[in-house]
Amino acid sequence: MTGPAGLEQGYRRLLAWYPAGFRSEQGEEMLAVLMAGAQPGQRRPSLLESLDVLRSAVRMRLRSMISAPQSQGWADALAVFSVAAPLFLLAVDILEVALPYRVRATSRFPLLEELLSRHPEVGGLSLLRVQFFDIAVGCQVIIAVLALLGLRWAALAAIGASAAYVAVASTWIDWIPRPLQLLTAAAYLLTAAALAASPGPRRGRQLLTWGHGIVLLLAAGAVQASTLRYDATTPIMGTLSHDATPSVSLVVTIVLAAAALAVAGLLRVNRYFLLLLAAMFYPYVMQLAYPTNSSSGDLLGHPTPAHLAVLFGPPLLVAAAAVIIAATHRRASLPAGPGQPGVA
Known about the structure:
Number of strands: 3
Number of domains: 2
Order of helices and strands: HHHHEHEHHHHHEHHH
C-alpha cells in the first residue's frame, strides 16, 4: 500500500495508542489534521511525528490510569517519606550505638583476639571514635534537620554531598554490618526522589503522625536485631563467641517486623508510604539473604552490574513511578493559564 492510503494507515496505527474513548470522539479529527499537515508525496509518518503522537498517547493513558485519589495518595506519601526516612536513619544509628554486643576471639584466631581486645564491641560507643561514622551520621543529622525545616533543595544537596563522601571515603567500618550501607543508599535514593517530586517536606511534616513514628521505631529495632544476627553468622565472626544468640536475634527481628506491619494496618498508614518503605528495605533484605565475604554471592562485597541491578532495580522503579505519578498530580492541580482550558 503506497501513497495517501499507506500514509493514512500509518497514522491510524499511531492513533491506536490513544485510549478508545478519545479515539471515538476525536480520532477522525486528529487524523484529518495529520493528513493535512503531511508533506506532498509523503508515504509514511515521519519519525518526529511518530514520537510526538506516541508521547501524547502514553501521557494520556497514564493520566487515565491514575485516579485523583491515587495521585494524591502518592504525593502525600512522598511528602511524608521525605521527612520520615532521614529520621528513620538517625534512629537506626542511635540503636547501633546504644545496643551493641561483645565478641570474644578463640585461640584459633590470635590476630582477631588482639584486634578485638581493642574493639570488643560490634557497634557501641566505640563507633563515635571512628571518623567515617561520625561524618556519615553528621550528614544524616543535617539532612534530617533540613527536611524538618522544610528546606527541600538544601536537603537534596546535602544528600548528594553525603552520598559523594561515602563513595570516595577511603576508610571503611568493617565492624558495621554491610547491609546498613545498602539501607542508607536506598533511603537516600528514595528520599531524593521524594524531595524532588512531592509537595515538599513542609507538607510531609504536617502529615506525619505518631503512628508513623511507632512503625519506624519498630522497624529500626528490627534492623538492629537483624544486623546483629547477620554479623554473628558471617563466615569469620560466626566462629567467635557472642553475647548475642543468632536464633534470639532472628526471633526478635520477626516479632518487631510483624509488630510494625500490625501497627501500620491498625492505624491505616498510607499504603503508598508503606510501598516506599518496602522499596527502601529491599536491598537490605537481599543482602541479608547472602553470606558476606563469599566470592560470588556477596551482593555488596563483590558487586557486578547484574548484582547492582538486582539490588537497586526495584527501588529505582518505585522511585520513578512515584515521581511520574506525583508530577502528573502536580500538573493536574495547577490552575489553567489565561485562554487555556481547565484540567479536570
